[in-house]
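Let's practice the habit of predicting before peeking. Look at the sequence and jot down your guess about where helices and strands might fall. Then scroll down.
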Amino acid sequence: MHHLTRSAPRRTVALAALTALAAVGSLTACSSSDSPGTGASGASDDTYTWWDPYPQHDEASDWTKRVQACGEEAGVTIERTAYDTTALTNQALLSAQEGTSPDVILLDNPAVSTLADTGMLTTVDEFGLDTSAIDQNLLDAGVVDGAAYGIPIGANTLSLYYNADVLKDAGVDPASVTDWDSLTAALKKVTDAGHKGITFAGIGTEEGSFQFLPWFWGSGADLTDLDSPEAVEALELWKGWLDEGYAPNSVIQNSQNTTWEEFLTGDFGFVENGTWQVNSAAEADFETGIVQLPAKDGGVAPAPTGGEFIVAPVQQDTERYETTRQIVECMTTPEGFVETANTFAYYIPPTADGQQALLEEKPELEPWVEAVQNAKGRTSDGLGTDYPIISEALWTAVQNALSGSATPADALKTAQTDAESGTK
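Done guessing? Here is the structure:
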């Protein structure tokens, strides 16, 4: 394998980008506790360093055993360190400056472009990794200037969970929910029957953008044009649900965890939430089901992808790359993707073969495979490190519109102005 080289950082990563990514860890149901350990400096030839954002998985966990098995297969010991998602991004940037980067990092996908922009990551082509089987819509989240800087170990995304008892009582067939009009009609029936309609997370953080994007993209809107007529329609949809009483005012402050707690009370017909609630939904006190998030005029709306990429930072000792490649490949074979999916329960493999293998074991996950196939990376469309700035403008617009401090059109007009000034 040829040696890798990397030029000096193209530009300094803005602190705003790191701040805007602060809530991303909650999108993939990761713990918010922080448990840093030793860094990569001093790693020996038979010890490889690994950082991931899963502090909730301790040394005795199935996840740690999974990681160590890939090290054993490559003939080395893996020294694993777990950080909170935001701390992981910050620590990775610091380690690059100090020349102590770990051999492998599992990084939440919106942060890949942030790290790649500094020049601290190798590309998959330089590393000799084959990504031809990876679904392009998932791989795109780690593409910067046409180069892929990692491989998704799996993906999660959003759909609409429903309470089958509530819908039955209201006379709503979940199969009838195919576009915005039919969903709004279903919400009217549910509330007319004395139940609560829908809950979602409109909080003023990255989670708010994450939850709004399926409606934004489902309208045909683009993140480079926040105040387009299509974007206004999407925000008017959410605001209209509040005005009609189909959604509670609590959505303005709701996190995704809060919406799920609301849904589990049994009062709501629908909740927008993620793959990571599959097990909880199965254990609910009522029958649940899934319908795809509908696009405005029908079909499945693109929902944002959550999940981590496995990336390989640049090393001064390039002799380490061959073993690192073996570790990465162990994690990204079709069998490896399925094992990761089963370990976490909420990850869908990013390849067709992996998805088929998972469905053979768990056919009930078919709606989530479809949702992931239609999903879209938040930093796709070449947004890269501009995404956090655009996202903050978007979630601020959502807050202003839902609270009534501005009309959807005015809120988005301000958002577009703020995004343009922030990304220049």
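How did you do? The chain has a mean pLDDT of 89.
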